[in-house]
Specification:
Blueprint lengths: L9 E5 L2 E5 L4 H7 L25 H23 L7 H35 L3 H21 L10 H27 L2 H8 L2 H11 L7 H19 L6 H24 L7 H23 L2 H15 L2 H26 L2 H23 L5 H21 L1
Antiparallel strand pairs: 1-2
Helix pairs in contact: 3-12, 3-13, 4-5, 4-10, 4-12, 5-9, 5-10, 6-9, 6-13, 7-9, 8-14, 10-12, 13-14
Length: about 400
């Protein structure tokens, strides 16, 4: 549309209203009023135009102005909602923190297994040894909460009710693993314990009705085959030690299942969660340890160990108890920072470090075929962790 305006055109602006005084229909005046923005000045002014004013479609201008307004608002909203880019230093610090957790976890686990085996060689009472490990950790956490070194968790009856089956499974697995290490080499126990994923899949499939992809089932073949090959070629094979490791695998699988079902929605940190688990397991284990072994056997065995080893035996007991709690606590703290897949890989590498270090320190005789079985089992565990995710 083209509007022609004469030389003398008087434009009166009063507030936000605009009027063009000319000999044209009222509709043209109303449309032309949309061309200029509203001015919020109360004064009156006169506008003179000497040339014809050519104006394109007012509707197009109005639509363009509306689009510009929407675009401006969109830019403002996008600018407000722009995510903050992660700080490179923060990411690097997190990676260093996880690396420290892993290195500490593996080192503490290796030290625990060494001292635990030394104690069991001189003091073959796995029930008391297991009880002392839980008692030491529980005492350490109670002192930490009392002195406010660590913040005490806020728990209720429902929390402890959900934790009870987890603690039962944890107690059985802990005692069974200690019984196994009292009868066979540390390396053999951990080779058999590397077969835990096979128990996890079988229990989940036949008891819980869960199904898994084909690669998960195929990854069980090297695990089972490697464990069987290592067991058959073990020079110091013992059935009690073998069954203890197998029972430990099964118990820890149920512990994980109960933990996933019972702890949903519970806001307790990994460190405090394991502390509560240790305390409840201690209450469950103590009466059974007294019934199975008893104070008389413990007193006689303690005297024998002190006479053979000397006062340093007390340090061995204290060390294995402290390091047991610390390595488990750090593992739960690591799980707070990493994904389950990364945790599984770390757990696999931990077993390798324990097996190799125990063979070196205790001079465990290993045949080539036995070492091959261990390598196949550990490799199968790694493949399983990849296929599971």
């Amino acid at each position: 549309m083209i509007c022609s305006v004469k030389q003398s055109v008087t434009t009166t602006i009063n507030g936000s209203d605009l009027f063009l005084r000319k000999r044209s229909p009222a509709a043209s005046i109303r449309r032309s009023s949309l061309l200029l923005p509203a001015l919020h000045k109360p004064e009156r002014l006169t506008l003179s135009i000497s040339k014809p004013l050519h104006v394109s479609s007012v509707e197009n201008l109005s639509l363009r102005a509306r689009r510009d307004s929407i675009k401006c608002e969109a830019y403002e909203a996008a600018d407000r909602s722009k995510p903050v880019e992660p700080d490179g230093k923060a990411e690097a610090a997190k990676k260093v923190k996880i690396g420290v957790y892993f290195a500490t976890w593996w080192a503490l686990n290796v030290v625990f297994n060494i001292y635990n085996k030394k104690v069991l060689n001189a003091f073959p009472y796995p029930w008391l040894t297991s009880t002392l490990s839980l008692a030491c950790g529980s005492l350490m956490m109670l002192v930490s909460w009392t002195t406010r070194i660590a913040e005490a968790p806020k728990t209720d009856f429902d929390f402890w009710k959900a934790l009870f089956p987890v603690a039962v499974a944890h107690t059985i697995g802990h005692v069974a693993a200690t019984v196994s290490m009292s009868k066979v080499a540390v390396s053999f126990t951990h080779i058999i314990k590397s077969g835990e994923p096979a128990f996890s899949v079988l229990v989940s499939r036949f008891l819980l009705g869960e199904s898994f992809p084909v690669p998960v089932y195929l990854s069980l073949l090297p695990i089972i085959g490697g464990c069987a090959l290592a067991a058959v070629t073990e020079l110091n094979f013992n059935m009690i030690g073998f069954m203890g490791a197998m029972i430990s695998n099964l118990a820890f699988v149920f512990r994980n299942i109960f933990s996933k079902k019972g702890m949903k929605g519970k806001s307790v940190s990994g460190m405090n969660y394991y502390a509560c688990l240790s305390m409840l397991s201690l209450l469950i284990l103590t009466p059974f340890a007294i019934a199975v072994e008893g104070p008389q056997m413990w007193a006689a065995g303690w005297q024998t160990a002190i006479s053979q080893i000397g006062p340093q035996f007390v340090w061995w007991v204290a060390a294995q108890s402290v390091f047991y709690h610390l390595y488990n606590q750090v593992s739960y703290m690591s799980l707070d920072e990493i994904s389950p897949l990364t945790f599984s890989i770390g757990n696999t590498m931990k077993r390798i470090s324990v097996i190799v270090s125990s063979i070196i320190i205790f001079h465990t005789p290993v045949q080539p075929i036995n070492a091959l079985g261990a390598a196949i089992a550990v490799a199968g565990t790694f493949i399983y962790s990849q296929a599971k995710q």
